[in-house]
Design a protein that fits this description.
This protein is an alpha/beta fold. It is 48% helix and 12% strand. The strands form three sheets. It has a six-stranded mixed sheet with strand order 5-4-8-7-6-9, covered by helices on one side. Helix 9 links the parallel strand 7 and strand 8. Helix 5 runs antiparallel to helix 6. The longest helix is centred in the middle third of the chain and has 23 residues, at 108-130.
């Protein structure tokens, strides 16, 4: 139990002397007793994160990248029980932008290419370091999420392109589904209610399966929708979320100029047909002769 007596006071965590020592050290800037090594490690990690905020040069970046990776490699057995590995990886990539900001003499296009190359090599470095400890696709998905969550879809897609064998989310490989014509669908604005049968039966329907827990699927779906917007004006992309439809799913359409995403919002159908974890990304083309089921 956490007890907070005053906003300015150190919280007290019942039954956890190590946490109490950690919070006291954070507030008072005092050393942590040697009998609490994990709390001391968290302070080291915090100091390492903060030390990266002032880097300005490529030389600083190179040295700090190495320091981050050596720290994770040395302490991973202890760090894995916290979110600190994720925080360190996230800051590792953010450091590239600090250097890009200060390198004003470099041309904009060249700077962008340099940044992308540094990000891709960084993903490769983390894959090599974490491969014995974390499935490679989990590392790729996390790195992709760092840029997708900031709407940097193009750079996130570059990671997927560069590491295609690891850019997926594990699950069964399933490509055959039955979509009834009265399947409930909404537009990205979430207002107009329509059904799959409202679209011409002789049209091929492009369908993308996505999951909030699979950033790669979200990125590749946005890229697919951008391609349709450029090359096939007016052709919609039907989105099938593996979980209940959420604002995060709907937000994908805002990442596409002139995008036309339509979202399946039919909980009864979803619970019946998406009972197993599906390997993602998954795109299928649905024709009138395969997968469409008329109302009875």
């Amino acid at each position: 139990m956490v007890t907070i007596t005053d906003p300015a006071a150190v919280p007290v965590i019942s039954g956890s002397n190590a946490n109490n020592a950690l919070y006291k050290a954070l507030k008072d800037k005092t050393p942590i007793p040697a009998k609490y090594p994990f709390a001391a490690l968290m302070i080291q990690a915090k100091d390492l994160l903060e030390s990266s905020h002032s880097i300005k040069t490529v030389q600083d970046l190179t040295a700090k990248r190495k320091e981050f990776q050596e720290f994770v490699k040395k302490h991973y057995p202890q760090l894995r029980s916290s979110d600190m590995v994720r925080r360190l990886i996230g800051q590792y990539f953010m450091m590239h932008e600090y250097v890009a900001y200060h390198e004003q003499k470099e041309a904009i296009n060249a700077k962008r290419i340099t940044h992308q190359q540094a990000v891709l090599s960084g993903v490769g470095a983390w894959l090599e370091l974490l491969q014995p400890l974390i499935p490679k696709q989990e590392t790729v998905n996390y790195c992709v999420s760092l840029y997708y969550n900031r709407s940097m879809v193009t750079l996130a897609h570059r990671i997927v392109e560069h590491y295609p064998e690891d850019a997926f989310c594990a699950g069964i490989e399933q490509e055959k589904f039955t979509f009834p014509s009265d399947l409930a669908i909404i537009k990205a604005e979430g207002k107009e209610k329509i059904s799959l049968g409202d679209f011409k039966s002789d049209d091929k329907k492009n369908i993308a399966f996505v999951s909030e827990g699979c950033p790669v699927s979200m990125v590749e779906t946005v890229i697919k929708a951008r391609q349709f917007a450029r090359l096939k004006q007016g052709q919609p992309l039907f989105i099938v979320p593996l979980e209940p439809l959420s604002p995060r799913h709907l937000a994908m359409n805002r990442m596409v100029s002139n995008g036309r995403m339509l979202f399946i919002k039919d909980e009864k159908w979803r619970r019946k047909n998406l009972t197993r974890k599906i390997r993602l990304p998954l795109f299928i083309r649905l024709g009138a002769e395969s997968g469409m089921e008329k109302n009875k």
